[in-house]
Specification:
The structure is a single chain. By secondary structure, this protein is of the alpha+beta class. The chain has one domain: Nucleoside Triphosphate Pyrophosphohydrolase. It is about 20% helix and about 40% strand. Strands 1, 2, 3, 4, 5, 6 and 7 form a 7-stranded mixed β-sheet that branches. The N and C termini lie far apart (about 35 Å). The mean pLDDT is about 95.
Length: about 130
């Protein structure tokens, strides 16, 4: 089991979606920014590091939005998705193929990673009235 963290980052009523690089597993699928927890790191520390490395932003990590365990053919992940806010910087495409601010009503137009499908359902259920 690989421990992974990701951030649900809002800007007004839009959330940040990131498209994976073409050369990585699940290439060109969409996800929430994040990555693997390294030895000795807490989930919050890993998420702060990943946001800095991948988007050149500083975030304040808040509460856990939800947790998901998903088995891919090559890896099983335990994903903790945190709510987070940007405290410094504007997101830049340092590692991703693309990044977008999207409304909840636009979320189904992007092809997200399979592990994120349950998360997307909860986002739509929780924030669906936001347009």
């Amino acid at each position: 089991m690989t421990e992974v963290v990701a951030a649900l980052i809002w800007q007004g009523n839009r959330l940040l979606a990131c498209q994976r690089p073409a050369n990585k597993s699940r290439g060109l699928l969409w996800e929430f920014v994040g990555g693997k927890i390294e030895p000795g790191e807490t989930g919050r520390e890993a998420l702060i590091r990943e946001c800095r490395e991948e988007l050149d932003i500083t975030v304040e990590v808040q509460n856990v939005f939800m947790e998901v365990t998903h088995k891919y053919p090559d890896i099983t992940i335990h994903l903790m998705l945190y709510n987070a806010i940007i405290t410094k910087g504007e997101p830049k495409k340092l590692e991703h193929n693309d990044i977008r601010w999207i409304g909840v009503n636009e979320i189904d137009s992007l092809n997200f990673c399979p592990a994120d499908r349950t998360i997307i359902d909860k986002i739509k259920e929780t924030y669906g009235e936001m347009k």
